[in-house]
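Input structure tokens:
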């Protein structure tokens, strides 16, 4: 990942990291994201690497909001993937954070395969 490499290089850190991931139950809540004019809080569909597709819930008109509400499920689990630099007392880097309701071991393996490249 370009952003992770830049973070490590800008902070004079080794280009090796420890990857960790975890999920936690959350209070499901849908909100408006004014930065990209979208709705957050719904479960986004995954791409072929088992990461959520970006900008899945962009707002184009009031009908899209209604459609999202009727046809999408709210996330009940926050899932985070972090990269920890292999140097003491250095901040972790968030690789991905998304809402979901479940994940399978196949999805985890796909993400690991993608991250290992």
């Amino acid at each position: 990942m370009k952003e992770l490499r830049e973070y490590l290089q800008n902070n004079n850190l080794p280009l090796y990291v420890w990857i960790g991931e975890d999920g936690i139950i959350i209070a499901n809540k849908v909100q408006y994201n004014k930065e990209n004019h979208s709705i957050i809080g719904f479960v986004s569909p995954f791409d072929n690497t088992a990461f959520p597709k970006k900008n899945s819930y962009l707002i184009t008109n009031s009908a899209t909001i209604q459609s999202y509400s009727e046809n999408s499920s709210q996330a009940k689990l926050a899932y985070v993937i972090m990269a920890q630099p292999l140097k003491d007392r250095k901040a972790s880097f968030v690789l991905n954070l998304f809402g979901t309701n479940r994940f399978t071991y196949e999805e985890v393996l796909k993400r690991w395969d993608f991250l290992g490249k």
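The chain has one domain: 2-115. The first strand starts at residue 17 and ends at 25.
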